[in-house]
Specification:
alpha+beta, 2 domains, eight-stranded mixed β-sheet
């Protein structure tokens, strides 16, 4: 029988978490210590770091991605995986059927031939029979996570898919802006568990348990948590993490979000933060790769601006990042968009970090990004045509399906 602690003792145990950097997270005891997080910007920094980790693999590579392109970036990753598979490394590769709908079936045949395992999350069929389950509609539920775990020791996650669009224009790409992160240390365990959970859901395989890495070398962050919404009970975890941190904000909130259609509670949290004197700035794309989302997002701008939120549009190509920094303490990088799809449908994963130096690095990068943006004003919204306003209204009504 477990005897509950007296209230006075419980308060003394919890009190250290109620102030300082811990006030930005709901359950500080879940944060992993001794983890090294290295932020990466776009494909120019992310792709070489991921390929280096793959080529150094000794025992296992677990790779989960939403979009894999049949282009020279996709080929570079496939060839690196093939080489490791031929060397005896266990390679498991999982991709989403809708995200990678343009990928030819033959593209990953060399990996299969080399002994690698390839799985597709929810193959494109309106109805899919799963062993021991009823018929169910699976078209809408997609695997939007981006996870690479090498030897259960080094991990990567963020917003970047595998495709040429993330390369700079000088390198022949489209220059998409996105943020990613390299992770070493105990937090990699959660990334490994997240991959295993989705892999077993997609294949019915039973994988060996992940091993817990030791402390990472280098300047570790104060605390890191991997927030994953794979299970039904964890669906709202990242949403709650944002709401809790925003409610604790005292100075500034800086957000980059590619598909920004915040629901009512988030909009209220932003408005309350502004009323407390907090600066709230959000960077969104000026020309989204999903046009209906751009319209639905713009429908909310007038309300947000009236509430004191400052909206900035990234003018160069597509801004695809999903990141946030609060008060130079709390930060997040992941695949999670502030929209209905990430909240209710997609599988997502994100890092939540409590660490001053890491947040300062990300804040400095945010300031460099925002200096290149154009702030949206009510005058800009007044200048929209009736047709543009109708499209904004219409697609906002359809936001649950975007």
């Amino acid at each position: 029988m477990q005897i509950p602690l007296p209230t006075s003792i419980r308060r003394r145990l919890i009190r250290p978490f109620a102030s300082g950097p811990w006030r930005y997270v709901r359950r500080p005891e879940l944060l992993r210590r001794y983890t090294l997080v290295t932020p990466l910007r776009s494909g120019a920094e992310t792709f070489p770091a991921m390929l280096d980790a793959i080529r150094a693999a000794k025992s296992s590579i677990h790779f989960e991605i939403y979009i894999l392109r049949d282009d020279r970036v996709g080929e570079a990753f496939r060839d690196a995986l093939v080489e490791r598979a031929r060397a005896g490394v266990t390679v498991r590769f999982l991709y989403d059927a809708v995200g990678s709908i343009s990928l030819p079936d033959s593209f990953l045949e060399p990996l299969r031939a080399a002994g690698g395992r390839v799985a597709i999350y929810h193959p494109l069929a309106l109805w899919r029979r799963k062993a021991g389950a009823r018929w169910r509609l699976t078209l809408n539920k997609r695997d939007h996570k981006k996870i690479l775990v090498v030897d259960d020791r080094v991990g990567f996650t963020g917003g970047i898919n595998i495709g040429l669009e993330y390369e700079s224009k000088d390198a022949g790409g489209e220059g998409w802006l996105d943020w990613h992160a390299r992770v070493e240390g105990p937090a990699v365990f959660e990334l490994a568990v997240s991959f295993r959970r989705t892999w077993m859901s997609a294949t019915d395989d039973v994988l060996p348990e992940a091993t817990l890495p030791g402390p990472a070398l280098g300047r570790n962050v104060l605390g890191t948590q991997v927030v994953d919404n794979t299970g039904l009970r964890s669906r709202w975890r990242m949403h709650r993490a944002y709401l809790y941190a925003i409610a604790a904000a005292q100075h500034d909130i800086s957000i980059l979000n590619a598909y920004f259609i915040p629901e009512l509670n988030l909009r209220r949290a932003f408005r309350k933060a502004v009323a407390r004197g907090v600066s709230v700035r959000v960077i969104v794309p000026s020309d989204s790769d999903v046009k209906p989302v751009r319209h639905a997002s713009r429908y909310l701008y007038r309300q947000l601006i009236a509430g004191g939120v400052r909206i900035y549009e990234w003018p160069e190509s597509m801004m695809h990042a999903k990141a946030g920094i609060i008060d130079g303490v709390w930060s997040t990088i992941g695949s999670y968009n502030l929209d209905h799809r990430s909240l209710m449908h997609n599988l997502e994963v994100a890092l939540v970090c409590v660490d001053g130096p890491l947040a300062a690095t990300l804040q400095a990068e945010f300031e460099r990004e925002i200096a290149r943006c154009q702030e949206i004003t009510t005058a800009d919204l007044d200048a929209l045509t009736r047709w543009e306003r109708f499209q904004d209204w219409f697609w906002y009504q359809m936001r649950s399906q975007l």
